[in-house]
Amino acid sequence: MLAVIGQTQDIVLPCKLDHPMDVVDETVEWSRSDLSPRFVHLWRSGEDLLIGQNPSYKNRTSVSIEKLKTGDASLKLTKVRLSDEGTYRCIIPELKPESSVELVVEADIQIIKVSPRVLECKSKGWYPEPEVFWLESEGKIITAGSKEMFRGSDDLYVLSSRLTLEKGHSNNITCRIQQNNQHREAKIHVPG
Can you name the CATH fold of 2-105? Predict the structure, then answer.
């Protein structure tokens, strides 16, 4: 499943029983084994039980009572972030069905040519605040001119960074946005 930061606000991770049945009173566990605590969302005895929920998912997950009545335990995840990327496991312990969903999160990064010698890298939808790097084709970091970052109305970071090309820079330039151990990048070829 693919979500694009800046375009995808909310996503529904599927988890449905083969045969429709009411699971409102059952336990539904959504988790990620690479997290601590691992619980993303827990539904038990007709209500959300979010005491042991991983804090990065606070106020961003839900299951639908109406859908649970038909055996659909899909998880709605709001304000998708890069850190949401991973494998989610849905299990209804009493009924033994289990499913996994791989969520891939892409960042919408754009490089635009402001003038023949100035490039601008723009992206939105990041949390927490990311770092921005400009790289030459050999992977050497180029010092950027300006960087602006602010939090949008959705509480996610919007960023913009400008680079003035100097003589001697290679023609292939990369804008890399890095957050924790993950990064996304966009490349541009600038004719000599």
Answer: Immunoglobulin-like (2.60.40)
Cα distances (Å, whole numbers) of residue 42 to 105, 125, 127: 23, 26, 23
Topology annotation, domain 108-189: Immunoglobulin-like (2.60.40)
The total of other beta-carbon atoms located within 10 Å of residue 14's CB is 13
| pLDDT tens-digit readout, 63-111 | 999 999 999 999 999 988 888 999 999 999 988 778 999 999 888 899 9
The structural domains of the chain, with segments of one domain joined by +, span 2-105, 108-189
| All residues at 6 or more sequence positions from 93 whose CB lies less than 8 Å from its CB, including other chains | 27, 29
